[in-house]
Specification:
By secondary structure, the chain is of the alpha+beta class. It has three domains: 115 residues, Trigger factor ribosome-binding domain (Alpha-Beta Plaits, 2-Layer Sandwich), CATH 3.30.70; 186 residues, Trigger factor, domain 2 (Orthogonal Bundle); 101 residues, Roll (Chitinase A, domain 3). The chain contains 15 helices and eleven strands.
């Protein structure tokens, strides 16, 4: 076998492979013998079909299959052993392949076009520092959070007059209709926040005992809201139209919870704090912890951006665009490929950078690490955060293994989990190498930073 790499530029190359009978014939002959032992043809005893007949019937297809398998393995092995930074897939020269005379040739030549990334290196000492944001909860954020908690743990109160956000209870009747068996009447509740804005003035300010006349479909134009307000099925609510009366029996509203021990216990648990000062300190901790995950994710994104911005890599643009058109089989137009190409190349470059970091730092991911992450995912999904129960742990292990080794999705579960573990290990290493500067920011400043990313 003869393999030659010819580089036309830093980003384009061709790989030429020449196969002789010494390369493929032993395996082809072996498979022909296997066929001879297994094939059943009328007129011949099993295992006694003449070799010449086997060759005539199956020799060409076995030869083609064996050479294709050999080419695939050879190309992959050559790329791996020579650490070529190939992007996209090697593209075979189909004209050469179509011109092969499989019946008469004994030597075969194949060529592949390769798209390569240019050579690059990563020196963490040359990278600028990256900010790690520590969110500071200001007075406004603390007050807003407490107000939200007071609304969430609200109490109920009865009002004297109808307000915009109240719920009013009473009797709904069709206006001008005499009471018969078929007349409409219902004891029901009107949530004012479900009522149309231009209908609210007819109700706001009214008191218990007042009767309001209104057009039902104007007050509740949405049929689902009308069904809730009238207590009938949605399909029946569509037929309820015209003037109705509503006699108000009661008015209820949500009152924000008072800042007292009962409220503190409901929010944080019984006895967690003993006064308002301690409660406010806990609220500050809650605010900071709520943003901690986002801050960690933002740090990760900033490290990736720093690596991308400071690592020049050239890509074979024309090759990649043609390859994207081919592998997507007409799903995208050239214009759509151009539109999304920048995002695609960022993803390619970032993966090349991560692979380079992993190679230099000897970062590897084994099956047990992938399995551990999957076990944890199963525990979180089913609420088994930790357990000393052997049977439970065996069950979790079995579910995790079945998920990773599920053949129905061609190993995608394992691949996606492996990639996540790999990315985490690479980014953790990068985080330990770059200079990280702590920076205090307000919640609003942090929100702006996140939006800009």
């Amino acid at each position: 076998m003869d393999i030659t790499l010819e580089k036309a530029s830093d980003t384009n190359a061709s790989l030429k492979i020449v196969l002789t009978p010494d390369d493929y014939k032993p395996e082809v002959d072996k498979k022909l013998k296997d066929y001879g032992r297994k094939v059943q043809l009328k007129g011949f005893r099993p295992g006694h079909v003449p070799a010449s007949l086997i060759q005539k019937m199956y020799g060409k297809s076995i030869l083609v299959d064996e050479i294709n398998a050999m080419l695939s393995k050879t190309v992959s092995q050559y790329i791996r052993e020579n650490k070529l930074q190939v992007v996209g897939d090697p593209v075979p020269n189909r004209e050469e392949a179509d011109a092969i005379d499989w019946d008469n040739q004994t030597d075969f030549a194949f060529s592949y076009t390769l798209g390569l990334a240019s050579e690059f290196d990563i020196d963490f000492n040359d990278l600028p520092s990256v900010n790690q944001y520590d969110i500071q909860a200001g007075d406004a954020e603390v007050e807003s959070t407490i107000a939200d908690l007071q609304q969430r743990f609200h109490t109920h109160a009865h009002g004297e007059e109808v307000g915009d956000g109240d719920t009013i209870y009473g009797e709904l009747k069709r206006a001008g209709e005499t009471e018969t068996e078929d007349s409409f009447s219902a004891k029901t509740a009107f949530p004012m926040n479900q009522m149309a804005e231009d209908a609210k003035p007819s109700f706001v300010g009214k008191k218990k005992g007042d009767v309001v006349t209104f057009v039902l479909e104007q007050a509740f134009p949405d049929e689902k809201a009308r069904a809730n307000a009238t207590g009938v099925k949605k399909e029946e609510a569509a037929e309820l139209t015209g003037e109705f009366t509503f006699e108000i029996d009661d008015i209820t509203r949500h009152e924000p919870a008072e800042l007292n021990q009962e409220f503190f216990d409901k929010v944080l648990g019984v006895g967690a704090v003993e006064n308002e000062e301690q409660f406010r300190e806990k609220v500050i901790e809650i605010i900071k912890s709520n943003y901690a995950r986002e801050a960690t994710q933002l740090l990760r994104l900033d490290i990736e951006k720093t690596l991308l911005d400071n690592t020049p890599i050239l890509l074979p643009d024309e090759f990649l665009k043609n390859w994207l058109m081919e592998v997507n089989e007409g799903k995208f137009t050239p214009e759509q490929i151009d539109e999304q190409y920048d995002d695609f190349t960022k993803s390619v470059k970032l993966q090349l950078i991560k692979n380079k970091i992993a190679d230099k730092a000897d970062i590897k991911v084994d099956f047990e690490e992938v399995l551990d992450v999957t076990r944890q995912m199963v525990r979180e999904q089913f609420g088994f955060m930790s357990s000393e129960d052997d049977e439970m742990n065996k069950t979790i292990d079995r579910i995790a293994r079945n998920y990773l080794l599920d053949e129905k999705n061609n190993g995608q579960n394992y691949t996606s989990t492996f990639n996540r573990v790999f990315d985490d290990k690479v980014l953790d290493y990068a985080k330990s190498q770059v200079t990280i500067t702590a920076q205090d920011v307000t919640v609003d400043e942090f929100k702006a930073l996140v939006e800009n990313r």
